[in-house]
Amino acid sequence: MKGFIKTMGSNLSGGNGKAKEGKPGSPEGAIGAMRPEVTPRADISLPSKKERRKSSFFRQSKNQVVKDLPLLSETPMLKREALFRQKLQLCCMIFDFEDPESDTRGKELKRETLFELAEYVNTPSGQKIFTEALMPDIVQMVRVNLLRTLPPQTDDYDPEEDEPAMEVMWPHLQVVYEFFLRFIVSTEVNGKIAKRYVDQAFIRSWIDLFDAEDPRERDYVKTVLHRMYGKFMSYRSSIRKVISQVFFRYIYETGRHNGIAELLEILGSIINGFAIPLKKEHIQFLEKALIPLHKPRGVAIYHPQLSYCIAQYVEKDPDTIVPIITGVVRFWPWTNASKQVLFLNELEEVLELCRAEQLNSVQDSLFRLLAACLGSSHFQVAERALYYWNSEHICVNVLSQNKAAAFLPYVFAPLDKSAKGHWNQAVEGLAQSILKMYMEMDLVLYEKCSRENAENLKKQEVERDEAQARWKQIIEQAVSNGVDVDSL
Fold it and tell me: Can you say whether residue 22 is alpha, beta or left, with left for phi > 0 and alpha for psi between -120 and 50 degrees?
């Protein structure tokens, strides 16, 4: 993952609004309609899940009177600002989308009005649109439509397996997002003036929208927040603080959040802009928020983005390598082979930039970890660890002759076991090649490790025989005391 945020500069008449091509769940277009998906009928009956709400919680407007307003393009310039305000107020009306038959005329009129506003601000007219007088109405319309209570997830919802619940209000919400994006990126909007209305409470509520289940909405929230981060410089520290609080709740309290990947995408670009040397605040963010993100059960969902942020820190300040390696080892997913492969990929990227003097402080824990991975019962973990020797930089700085005396005693036993016979031919062949390399590099060290390994195997065999003999004595004693050992 080398990029971060792409501006969704979509054509309001139906242009492409994808944030990242090929990304599952990305929007088909800025204002495009969703194509219905066909789900094959199952051949077996499955336990029914509690239905998840597809619409957010709003205070629906009561006794709404929706009236037709003239088009902005057909209104004289002097009257357009007042008409623009009227249309913004009309768009503050909220409808019940859970009932598709209710107030269809009002829903359609609001949708057409939103389209007109979005197209109007996207089309040069020679007149200033985003005036300070209109900013309170613009922000209020966005606040009413977007800053809402999100529907709760059911306890059995698994983001890695279940399809997300798509927001039924999306035909309205998408145009509001597009309109607000135009407002934020507009050169007419002065950040110092706009922040009187887009205040810090607004920003905090905006970041809460990252927990939306609909990936299309999270994509817009991400893009707009990134633009707000660039426009409102005085809010940057507070934005990072709120994001870290989201991470803390996810790591230590809930373990559930839909937008960790999108938040990390934004952070990837933010970290890339950090000044060198890194501030203490940024180091603390790495150690207390980013590194512990390796711990949660759902790390596989956002690991590419997390790995990119970690790599950005290493490139900015190589001294962060030691706490990063220590943290990755600490949160290693020993019971999940697929996650171990992900972590091995990330660890290799960090070791690519590791200097020899930095390795000294973490080499014991690192070498034990690699030895355990080489001896893993899962062939993909063992194979991925063996591929470390294909990295020229790692071989020179970590696995070379200078480190062989410290490194080889840790890994000789699992390498020797795999080389003498492994059910996977790739693992067996790689292990044999590595042992041959160390034999040619330092025959004395190789023979020493071979003798120690043989002595350890013999010692383990003796200890196993002694343990079996003790168990036999315990069983015989139990039988002599009248205990029916077969029933135990």
Answer: left
Quote the CA–CA distance of 324 and 341 in Å, as a whole number: 17
Torsion of CA 141, 142, 143, 146, to 10 degrees: 130
Do the domain assignments include residue 304? Answer: no
Band (pLDDT 50/70/90 cuts) for residue 398 is: low
Confidence of residue 487 (pLDDT cuts 50, 70, 90): confident
Is 4 within a domain?
A: yes
Confirm whether 263 is domain-assigned.
Answer: no
438 is a domain residue: yes
- Flag the least confident range among 45-59, 84-98, 190-204, 354-368: 45-59
The count of domains in the chain is 2
How many helices (DSSP H) and strands (DSSP E) are in the chain? Answer: 20, 0
Query: Contact at 8 Å (CB) between 410 and 371?
Result: yes
pLDDT band, residue 24 (cuts 50/70/90): very low
**Phi and psi at residue 438, to the nearest 5°:** -70, -35
Chain segment 260-284, per-residue pLDDT in tens: 999 999 999 999 999 889 999 999 9
Cα separation of 234 and 236, whole Å? 6
Q: How many angstroms separate the CA atoms of 132 and 52, rounded?
A: 41
- pTM for this model (two decimals): 0.81
- Of the residues 192, 209, 231, the one at which a domain ends: 231
Domain residue limits at 474: 360-481
Rounded to 10 degrees, the C-alpha dihedral 181/183/186/190 comes to -130
What is the CATH classification number for the domain harbouring 202?
A: 1.25.10.10
Last residue of a domain, one of 178, 196, 231: 231
Q: What angle do CA 331, 336, 340 make, to 5 degrees?
A: 60
Percent of the chain, pLDDT > 70? 84
Those residues whose C-beta lies under 8 Å from the C-beta of residue 372, and which sit 6 or more positions away, are none
Per-residue pLDDT averaged across 463-477, rounded? 90
Q: Are 168 and 54 in contact (CB under 8 A)?
A: yes
Q: How far apart are alpha carbons 189 and 131 in whole angstroms? A: 8
